Amino acid sequence: MESALVENMLYDVERYRQDFPILQREVKGHPLVYLDNAATTQKPQSVIKALTDYYSLYNANIHRGIHSLAEEATAAYEATRDAAKDFLGAASREEIIFTRGTTEGINLVAYTWGMQNLKAGDEVIVSGMEHHSNTVPWQIACEHTGAKLRVIPVTDAGELDMEAFSSLLSEKTKLVSVVHVSNAFGTVNPVEEIIRKAHTVGALVMVDGAQSTVHLTINVQELDCDFFACSSHKVYGPTGVGVLYGKKKLLEAMPVFQGGGEMIKEVCFEKTTYNDLPYKYEAGTPNIADTIAFKAALDYVQTLGRERIRLYEEDLLAYATDTIGSLDGIRILAAKSKTYQRSVVCCRRRTSTGSGHFAR
Prior knowledge:
The chain is α/β, with parallel strands linked by helices. The protein has a domain of 250 residues: Aspartate Aminotransferase, domain 2, CATH 3.40.640.10. It is flat and about 70 Å long. The protein starts with a helix and ends in a 13-residue tail after the last strand. The C terminus is likely disordered.
């Protein structure tokens, strides 16, 4: 069954390449070969069309107009929220907050939940393989509240030291924020185990899903994570759009992040009443066009089938591992571990933007 699916995907590769206009160009006299998907993915024609259709056919502000264009734009915008809810397996659309990307989603939680709940003596745990976006916001929150940042070490194989993680957990731990799939190593971290262990000491868990959302089938309810952040541009969608998922009871209890239009119900100089979820965290005119086009990206992935994509990627990974692994100066990280689903081929000299932190 699986081999048949892979063969079918292989057979259709050239057809799928035609969906991406940029793959038809040449660079320095050669057909474009693009391997930088961890930084950003290319966009299929359906996403580009959705973007231009908004500006060409129904450009209008949302949620605040009663004319036809505003109603069309609002419906298309909110359809993306429903699509994101289904894509991530959230319980309700109120748990889907639109952001500018994974970075803003993590910052939102750090500056609202973190500033409200952390205090001196508390601890926040991150890992040694985190992107800056999942380290700096928690450093800032700890500096402001007196909490302490603890770090899960990374083994020489490019995996989290889970024994060390267990020893870090205590009644002082208030939140664990960890990457699902490392952008540097390709390691798929055991987030289910991390979440389960963190919850046993009463800690919340934030998952950085920037790299996992396009590769793995995500169900936030099954994971039981408290927060999950991801970006559109990692899933063949436009830049400048992301999703923060949070459990409804947590989002309702958290303070507001930014002030402005849409995040309010009633404003007077004496007191302002804030809007219900999800609009409580969506101040001002949003990135309407790109958010609408994000749905086209999610639809594209669903049409291809996430399981078929996974099988094809595993086929490519096996080929790369067998071929590159035989070269001198190369070692394979997380290749033999039963805990992890994906390995990555890394040179011994790794590229770094700082001490232990890597570019997303």
